[in-house]
Specification:
The chain is an alpha/beta fold and about 375 residues long. The protein contains 14 helices and 12 strands. The strands form 2 sheets. The protein has a 7-stranded mixed sheet with strand order 1-7-6-5-4-2-3, sandwiched between helices. A 5-stranded mixed sheet has the order 8-9-12-11-10.
Length: about 375
């Protein structure tokens, strides 16, 4: 079954009670039992909900996995994965990653004895030498947020398997339509489904998918025990968004490629980060593990001063200044003061995240209008 067909049909059947084509919203907190412990597969909504079950099966199919587990947000999903570890264990994460992920690793789980180190993953020999006996989880983002570096999933997972280390890939920037890390050897793939999977900026949601029955059992236990679960309305909205995922992401990729070319040719833009450029250091790897190069573009202005960045950010009309990404609408953001403000400035600068860096989440509007919007805003800079 091809991806577009999976998005609409995988794991989804008409409702057995009514024949409803769209999965119903089972808005209930509990379920009737005919005798103690005798029920129809559901007993309490934190433990399971039919709307959520359909979504979990659909997401698993999209990632070519066997088990999907849904959470109330992407960070709740990440928290569950980290809870697979024990005090004294270490997470080895890529050094360019979402600020919320950095905060969860260092400020939350760091206080409970789980250590984290952040390393570049482009030099495989250096990466392998950074692994220690206490390293129990390798955390990968690719493309990375916000510098759009590319990590070779197959190569990193091959090293991890050789050493018996768990791997998890945050696949939020790519979506299941562009990239399937389980096929490349990852143990777990994670999504902030708030982003491309939901696609309409109207729901917060997270999910993990795995082929391991053992990890699935452990993650479901954590899901139920901790209780960071999505409601049925949230699951319904994500299911609704998935049906157009391939169409939306395809258009966003097309628009992003044209916008990246426009920015690169502009005299007031110093540097553009976009893996679709042939001279991008990770271009060949991206071409081998992704179907397209994504809808995200980051760039630096001709000066690193914050004033110019703020002026540009305040002068777009179609690009909305807001956090998040992956919606049908185009967004513009300033990582240093928004999504990555929780990372110390000296750490941000090590990976090139300057005060002038601007991140675009390119939507599905007419690309000529988007380019005009950016052009007018950039021309306002003296």
């Amino acid at each position: 079954m091809k991806f577009g067909t999976k998005a609409i049909h995988a794991g989804i059947e008409p409702d057995s009670a009514t024949g409803a084509v769209m999965t119903p919203i089972y808005q209930t907190s509990t379920y009737a039992q005919s005798a103690p412990g005798v029920h129809k597969g559901y007993e309490y909504a934190r433990t399971g909900n039919p709307t959520r079950t359909v979504l979990e099966n659909n997401l698993a199919a999209l990632e070519n996995g066997k088990f999907g587990i849904c959470f109330s947000s992407g960070l709740a999903a990440m928290d569950a994965v980290i809870r697979l570890l024990q005090p004294g264990d270490e997470v080895l994460a890529c050094d360019d990653l979402y600020g919320g992920s950095y905060r969860l690793l260092t400020k939350v789980h760091g206080g409970f004895g789980i250590k984290s180190r952040f390393v570049g993953m482009n030099n495989l020999a250096a990466f392998e030498s950074a692994i220690r006996p206490e390293t129990k989880l390798i955390w990968i983002e690719t493309p990375t947020n916000p510098m759009l570096n590319i990590v070779d999933i197959l190569a990193i997972c091959t090293i991890a398997k050789k050493k018996g280390i768990l791997t998890c890939v945050d696949n939020t920037f790519a979506s299941p339509y562009l990239q399937n890390p389980l096929d490349l050897g990852a143990d777990i793939v994670l999504h902030s489904a708030t982003k491309y999977i939901g696609g309409h900026s109207d729901v917060v949601h997270g999910a993990v998918v795995t082929n391991s029955e053992l990890y699935a059992q452990k993650l479901r236990f954590i899901q139920n025990a901790v209780g960071a679960v999505p409601g049925p309305q949230d699951c319904f909205l994500i299911l609704r968004g998935i049906k157009t995922l391939h169409i939306r992401v395809e258009r966003a990729c097309q628009n992003a490629a044209k916008i990246a070319d426009f920015l690169r040719s502009h005299s007031k833009i110093k540097q553009v980060f976009y893996p679709g450029f042939i001279d991008h250091p990770g271009h060949d790897i991206a071409a081998s593990q992704m179907r397209h190069f994504g809808g995200m573009v980051s760039f630096n202005l001709f000066t690193d001063t914050l004033d110019y960045a703020e002026k540009l950010l305040s002068n777009t009309k179609l690009f909305t200044l807001a956090e998040s990404l992956g919606g049908v609408e185009s967004l513009i953001g300033h990582p240093a003061t928004m999504t990555h403000a929780s990372i110390p400035r000296e750490e941000r600068l090590k990976v090139g995240l300057t005060d002038s860096l601007i991140r675009l989440s390119v939507g599905i509007e007419d690309v000529s209008d988007l380019i005009d919007d950016l052009n007018v805003a950039i021309d306002h800079l003296s």
